[in-house]
Amino acid sequence: MQAQCSSQEQNQTKEDHMKGMAELLPILFLLFPLISSTTMASFDDYTSFVYVGCSQSKYILGSPYQFNVDSLLTSVANAATFSSYNNFTSSAASGSSPAYGLFQCRVDLPVADCASCVRSALDQLSSLCPSASGAGVQLKGCFLRYGNDSFLGEPDTTLLYKKCGSVVPGAGYNSDLLGMRDAALSGLSGGGGSYRVGAGGHVRALAQCVGDQSVKQCNDCVAAAVAQVKDGCGIANAGDAYLGKCYVSYWSDGVYTSRHYHGGVSGKTLAIIIGVTLGLVIMIIFLSFIRRTGK
């Protein structure tokens, strides 16, 4: 009789434990998306808006030029699903009013993310530059431009957008930061491909030229962009300069990763957030078992 009671108590304890786990499942399903969204929010900022430019002139709705523009933008959206850069000339509707255009994603952006970024850029164009004869939009991960002038292959060092970070108090720190910044930026001017990275201490920098530029055109554009952030941002801890055919960015928050940007959460902060969240999950499970065992 006593053995039977003991067996019943063990079964009851197991049932209590299983019930406790069943009650925890909804909590876990709520917490795991939190962890996932925290991770994605810190890295997936490639569709964040930077700037847009629209021509004052408008095309006539239903005109051959509009059909050329629509055809070009369709080609852009399709090409972004398998490449990070391409340019197009569309003249099927009328050879006398061709449309020129290109898109470019950051070289380190995966193809699927590149396509997503370009789609977002196209949405920005349609809402912010309706019927514009020419327009360009820059997101953090990609760039898109079209127009009725043959700008393909032409150099352009016009400053389109510049942004600087904050100045951290402390003469010694700022002096060190300035040296590290200059070292990181100097690594961008030494030639190489269209995508370049530089480093100096804990300062990182990157540059990218549009794919229609020659090596010399790219070097000239990067040098002009570097001069813009040096002159305009002083001892700020971050800076961006977007020119017509290239951009330069530097920041001082640690190691650069393929989706990292100085406006996001650093890897160290992200690890702390995930660690705390997982700790809460384990604590909830432990307390639930203690409570069930006590019963």
From TrEMBL:
<dbReference type="InterPro" id="IPR038408">
    <property type="entry name" value="GNK2_sf"/>
</dbReference>
<protein>
    <recommendedName>
        <fullName>Gnk2-homologous domain-containing protein</fullName>
    </recommendedName>
</protein>
<feature type="domain" description="Gnk2-homologous">
    <location>
        <begin position="155"/>
        <end position="255"/>
    </location>
</feature>
<keyword id="KW-1015">Disulfide bond</keyword>
<keyword id="KW-0812">Transmembrane</keyword>
<comment type="similarity">
    <text>Belongs to the cysteine-rich repeat secretory protein family. Plasmodesmata-located proteins (PDLD) subfamily.</text>
</comment>
<dbReference type="Pfam" id="PF01657">
    <property type="entry name" value="Stress-antifung"/>
</dbReference>
<dbReference type="GO" id="GO:0009506">
    <property type="term" value="C:plasmodesma"/>
</dbReference>
<keyword id="KW-0677">Repeat</keyword>
<keyword id="KW-0732">Signal</keyword>
<keyword id="KW-0472">Membrane</keyword>
<feature type="transmembrane region" description="Helical">
    <location>
        <begin position="270"/>
        <end position="290"/>
    </location>
</feature>
<keyword id="KW-1133">Transmembrane helix</keyword>
<feature type="transmembrane region" description="Helical">
    <location>
        <begin position="21"/>
        <end position="43"/>
    </location>
</feature>
<keyword id="KW-1003">Cell membrane</keyword>
<keyword id="KW-0965">Cell junction</keyword>
<dbReference type="InterPro" id="IPR051378">
    <property type="entry name" value="Cell2Cell_Antifungal"/>
</dbReference>
<keyword id="KW-0945">Host-virus interaction</keyword>
<dbReference type="InterPro" id="IPR002902">
    <property type="entry name" value="GNK2"/>
</dbReference>
<feature type="domain" description="Gnk2-homologous">
    <location>
        <begin position="47"/>
        <end position="151"/>
    </location>
</feature>
<keyword id="KW-0813">Transport</keyword>
<dbReference type="GO" id="GO:0005886">
    <property type="term" value="C:plasma membrane"/>
</dbReference>
